[in-house]
Design brief:
By secondary structure, the protein is an alpha/beta fold. The chain folds into 2 domains: about 5-45, no CATH class; about 45-295, P-loop containing nucleotide triphosphate hydrolases (Rossmann fold). About 40% of the residues lie in helices and about 15% in strands. The longest helix has 16 residues, at about 200-215.
Length: about 300
């Protein structure tokens, strides 16, 4: 009868002790390693329904909504074996395409115009660009006059197409709640991620967004929402009590995640997970885990 072998620690002094004693002394993994494994497992939760839609929202511009979309999508795509897509549904010339190296000039409008040609994954890949993390993005049109015409029906048709080829679709929304496409986004969303700055006016705007969603029949999305307090500076002289902000949103939503200020993200260019500070990567892993918890429902 063969005993179950207990694997040794993977890092640090614990691994050194295990190796030096030829496995006779096994101090086990550190709490930090075990915590990370738990986060990865939550982020890797299988999508029970086959396709899951996440809407990333913010009423205020410049708070890191698009950056959050890409960082969340990249984290999920890097950990999972299935396909993750980010879609730009911003009617005001979205910037999702600025966050990855483009492989094609095709846009969401091109996909709609040529949807009759899409029958395989290889067909839709002609309309997307893929980041090193394996996240794919479907860009919006650069011409605001064209993207403005992106409607509720258009979004629903795009959603119908991509659900056959991707397990997770993350939609980067515009800052308005009343434009046509938003009706489709909210009508189809399985959960929302609400991005706010760590400021009083940012929190008020985010809270007003939750109020609007509840008033318009989206109470379940509010209760299942994940709030991101974005670009939090550790050395800030701000008088804002982040603890109270977190308590406020935690009382209304499912989870709250702080993302620290990061020099790489401040550049506003392509998002590369490898260039992020460890604390920032950890916060996006926490976000991916919080979002991933809902995949099994």
């Amino acid at each position: 009868m063969v005993r179950n072998r207990r694997h040794g620690p993977s890092t640090g002094w614990r691994r050194a002790v295990h190796a030096a004693t030829l496995g006779l002394v096994n101090p086990g993994e550190s709490a930090r390693v075990l915590h990370r494994r738990e986060l990865v497992a939550r982020a890797s939760t299988p999508v029970a329904s086959g396709h899951h839609r996440v809407a990333v929202l913010s009423l205020k511009g410049g708070v890191g909504k698009t950056t959050t979309t890409v960082a969340l999508g990249s984290t999920l795509a890097s950990l999972r074996g299935d396909r993750v897509l980010a879609v730009d549904a911003n009617p005001d010339r979205g910037t999702l395409s600025d966050k990855v190296r483009l492989e094609t000039a095709a846009t969401i409008r091109d996909l709609l115009n040529e949807r009759h040609l899409v029958s395989r994954y290889a067909d839709i890949r002609g309309f997307t660009s893929q980041a090193p993390s394996r996240l794919e993005i479907l860009a919006s049109d650069r011409d605001p006059a064209v993207s403005e015409a992106f409607s509720d029906a258009d979004y629903r048709e795009v959603a119908r197409i991509v659900e056959h080829f991707y397990s997770i679709c993350i939609t980067d929304c515009g800052t308005g709640l009343l434009h046509s496409a938003m009706r489709g986004v909210l009508g189809l969303a399985d959960q929302v991620v609400l991005v706010s700055s760590a400021s009083v006016d940012g929190a008020r705007s985010a809270s007003a967004t939750l109020d609007w969603l509840e008033a318009h029949g989206h109470g379940p999305l509010v209760r299942g929402a994940v709030v991101v307090l974005s670009m939090v500076r550790s050395n800030s002289k701000s008088s804002v009590d982040l603890g109270r902000l977190e308590e406020h949103f935690a009382g209304r939503c499912r989870a709250v995640v702080r993302v620290p200020w990061d020099g790489h993200l401040e550049e506003g260019a392509e998002v590369d997970l490898e260039q992020l500070a460890p604390a920032t990567r950890e916060s996006y892993l926490q976000l991916a885990a919080s979002v991933g918890e809902a995949f099994g429902r």
